[in-house]
Amino acid sequence: MSEKNNTNNNNDVDLTFENQLADKIKNKFGDAIKEITVPKKNRIHILAETSIQKDLLRWLKEEEKFNALSSLTAVDWPPDHFDVVYHLNNWGDNIPTVVEVIFQIPRDDPHIETVFDLWKSADWHEREIYDLFGIRVDGHPNLTRLLLPEEWDQLPHKDPNALWPMRKDYKLRKKPFKRIREVSSPEDPWAKYLKGEAITEK
Predict the structure, then answer these.
(1) Among 34, 38, 47, which residue's Cα sits nearest to residue 5?
(2) In which domain, by residue range, is 36 found?
(3) Choosing a second label site near 159 at 20 to 30 A (CA), which of 79, 96, 139, 188?
(4) Domain holding 99: CATH number?
(5) Cβ proximity of 40 and 93 under 8 Å
């Protein structure tokens, strides 16, 4: 486990709250905390084992009152792993500190457990990391695509990574795929595009 505190060489910065919370987290979860740092005022960074994902996040929410999930996203680090990143806030007590919690999951079989039962706001965040990174969120009540078109999986992808456009090995196409969704009205100004008539691929 790694521990680092950085006061930006400013002795006037009071990190008492951040350091006390970091100590509580280390004492509570032990070696399952791989790294915990206080990089600056109002910021705590945690890298933890996925085995304590729900226990750690639930404890931060229920015991430390970091009950607002302000962000949930992912970062691709090929060829090995993804980071799944949670940002938590305690707005009820007007505490400005942001707790950033990161779990690393293998890139060849990316799974993470849903936190929808803890924060309903996780719903679309979790669908987004599935939609763009291909991270399976186990237990999510409706893990379907969010931003990409419904027919994305049916398009003629030759590379499996082409299904997930936020992966770093995703290759941009020179021309867009033809859309295959039907349109209900020929007067629709997007009708030709939606039918693929406005796109030619050579």
Answers:
(1) 38
(2) 2-146
(3) 139
(4) 3.30.460.80
(5) no
